Amino acid sequence: MVVEDKQKAIASTISSSTIMCQFTDSEGISLGASMYLPHNAGPLQLQQLVNKLLNNEEKLPYSFYVSDQELTVQLGLYVEKNKVSVEKVLKIVYQPQAIFRIRPVTRCSATIAGHEGEVLTVAFSPDGRQLASGSGDKTVRLWDLTTQTPLHKCEGHKHHVLCIAWSPDGKHLVSADKKGVILSWDTQTGKQLGKPFIGHKGWITSISWEPLHLSSPCRRFATSSKDKVVHVWDIALRRCVFSLTGHTLAVTCVKWSGEGVIYSCSEDTTIRVWDTTQGQLIRTLGGHGLWVNSLALSTEYVLRTGAFDHTGKQYSSPEEMKEVALERYKKIKGNAPERLVSGSDDFTMFLWEPPYHKPLKRLEGHQK
């Protein structure tokens, strides 16, 4: 009698803390045998269990359904809310959340061959539909990213192509080579537009366009060079409109800010902030102990893509593009100021809010 009472007590405890369940797929095929699952088991625990029962090497996400109703809470809460009898086996249907498996980014999705020399620079178009690449074979190539096939081979450079940059409205592509020559290209035909932009006396290290929300259609871009100078060019006038001089060693990077100034950094260890109307120096940012190699802006993504986003929307006028680009810029910037980061040979990065002469933070950790 005592033994029977103990068995009943155990059975009562099991039934109150667990639920007998059976997993089935959408076609009603059972997965394993029926099993007791705890009341506090939710979708995450069920997902782990199904992956284990299916012997999945890569853990997949699943959704679960009871009587065609998605299970989003713990089993106990579902049973209590829906007055489900625990005396019967609870059938739980599992379904994969995605029909198509997405390959991890660690795997190569396509190999785009064509250049006959080392590829030195690449850049996506603002709408993400094309890719431009520059090479030691002295060519610029345009690629269709939908089909992953070549569109155009742009020939005209006589030296290694070191830099390429699309205008934020997607209308222009410029490239620069080791001799300091800049060429512009028709992205629809791959043909060279007009004469080369000549002015630099050393190879060009970077190119940066004026943001679309400041000027539409896009006309001006800045180039930095080993000759210690930054030139600002007008692609419509096809000439240099002014030069930014003051660095005492090679200029390694130039960035056109969304706030309407130009930043340049140099092997002379300084960062300079320039006015974009007359080319006057506004301030010099110092602090690095060795060459400053690179700059990055907190708003860089939206400056590069302009009015384009994932929707693929097309615009009827430059004015409309400028308005949308401004909205996107304000949204991504929010109430915070645009920030600048500089990287140096002294193993450090500095975080700046450019109205101030001193960095907000010195970022350390790199050993080389």
TrEMBL record:
WD repeats lie at residues 112-153, 154-195, 197-243, 244-284. Keywords: Nucleus, Repeat, WD repeat. The keyword Repeat applies. PROSITE patterns: WD_REPEATS_1, WD_REPEATS_2, WD_REPEATS_REGION. GO terms for biological process: ribosomal large subunit assembly. Coiled coil: none annotated. SUPFAM superfamilies: WD40 repeat-like. It is found in: Nucleus, Nucleolus. Residues 19-77 form the NLE domain. One of its GO terms (cellular component) is nucleolus. The keyword Kinase does not apply. InterPro entries: NLE (IPR012972), WD40/YVTN_repeat-like_dom_sf (IPR015943), WD40_PAC1 (IPR020472), WD40_repeat_CS (IPR019775), WD40_repeat_dom_sf (IPR036322), WD40_rpt (IPR001680). It comes from the Eukaryota. Its main location: nucleus. This is NLE domain-containing protein. It comes from Papaver nudicaule (Iceland poppy).
